[in-house]
Amino acid sequence: MRERLPALVSILLLIVLVGGTWWAADYTQRAIEVDPARRATHEPDSWAQHFTLVRSNELGIAINRLEGDYMLHYPDDDSYEITVARAVGNRANSPITVATSDTAVMDQDGARITMQGNAHVHRLPDAERKALDVNSEILIVLPDEDVVYTDIPAVVVNGNSTMRGKGMRYDNNTRQLEVFSASDVKISGQDRQERRANSSNN
Predict the structure, then answer these.
(1) Most exposed: 6, 29, 79, 93, by fewest CB within 10 Å?
(2) How far apart are the first and last CA of the chain?
(3) pLDDT confidence of residue 28
């Protein structure tokens, strides 16, 4: 019996140690208040003033730039709300486009910019085409695709021609312009002559 006594004492001490550790851990968890899980509300978590965001291609060449007076970031949908927005597209082999608006929302990991309030997109002229201007209350810019579109009324000024309609889409890669439900179209005779001259040269 005397030989077993040290072993029994050791087992008893081990049981007491395990039990005490478990009690201390349980007491600590109950004593400390745990913050409730954060609710996913649409509240900003960061901001910036007079900022410039630049996106580059795989070669490190800047292709898109977004500027604004003020920006708020919302973590629930990872969107950015911008005041006095200016988005510039500068892709190789495509005319430069400049989009401006009173406010804008950038979401979808930067793949979509919704320009709101006095929205305007200006495509600079190139050797083959005159400047293109699109005006609407809302214009959606897809920087990765180099496309701008809207489903609401818009005014498009292409060279000396003016088109008014509900809905439009312009692809800067292909230079294709579509105006849906056109209500007022004024095609300049000068633009027609220039198109014929360009077609005959090609």
Answers:
(1) 93
(2) 110
(3) 73
CATH code at position 70 = 2.60.450.10
pLDDT band at 199 (very low <50, low <70, confident <90, very high): very low
Give this prediction's pTM. 0.72
Contacts of 133 (CB under 8 A, 6+ apart): 120, 121, 122, 123, 156, 157, 158
Residues 26 and 77 placed together within one structural domain of the fold: no
Residue 12 to residue 27: CA distance in whole angstroms: 22
Q: What is the pLDDT of residue 36?
A: 58
Distance CA 141, CA 124 (A): 16
Is residue 39 one of the residues assigned to a domain?
no
Kindly tell me if the per-residue pLDDT of 83 is higher than 80.
Answer: yes
Task: Output the six-digit token pair for 168.
Answer: 């439009």
